[in-house]
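#lab-general

N.A. 3:47 PM
ok so I finally got the sequence cleaned up, no stray characters, all 255 residues accounted for. can someone with queue access submit it? mine expired

B.Y. 3:52 PM
send it over

N.A. 3:53 PM
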Amino acid sequence: MELTVLGSGSAMPVPDRAQAGYLLDDGDRSLLVDCGSGVLQRLAGTDTGYEGVSTVLLTHHHLDHVAALLPLLKARWLAGEEHLEVVGPAGTKSLVDGLLDVHDYLDGRIDLAVREVSASRPFAAGGFDVAARETRHSMDGFAYRFSPPSSDAEAAAGPLVLSGDTEAFAGMARFADGADLLVHDCSFPDDVDVSNHPTPTSLGESLAGAEVGTLLLSHLYPHTGGREREMEQQVAAAGFDGEVRVATDGLRVSL
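B.Y. 4:20 PM
back already:
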């Protein structure tokens, strides 16, 4: 399984970071997680392309995670693709219906399926096995843990965790324990007073003792520019003993 960071940015755009979006690919199947502004252009630059993504999994419904959802639908329609499935937490159907009410000429152009999931049981999305965990954010949402189709591991023990937008807390550390890669929201440096998102020290403290191979800091606001190395060091100093890296658009990680 390979993870490609399509968008490592936030609701405040910067030139080198699109909004939230991640592509999972195992060679046969592809899954797009979140679809913020700029993600469609990033996706078009991959071998998979928007033609190869028929399932989108949403962590939550904030605009910087869903802004390119209808542009993806339209691009697939114009490219001759016939299907798109949108999977996400409660309210996903209302979100999609509302978007189509505004852009009603897109309604019925392709076979569109919408599925709402919960954290009570694992599920499949785009062929990947997925477990969900509620996050702590200003909007209800999920973090997800993934196991590729070729693996015998259950989703809850899969190698990849994407946090979505969330504060750092012990429950997230337990959810990610044993993962090879945890992509976690780390939106601001330590000297920014913020809620609903972690800073490096709060994230490192929450993950102290967790067995995670690599921590990838993502969902980065402009405030983090030029301070990436400092943030990596602060996470480690607070107690996380795995590898720490800052996400960049286009980064690929094999799992």
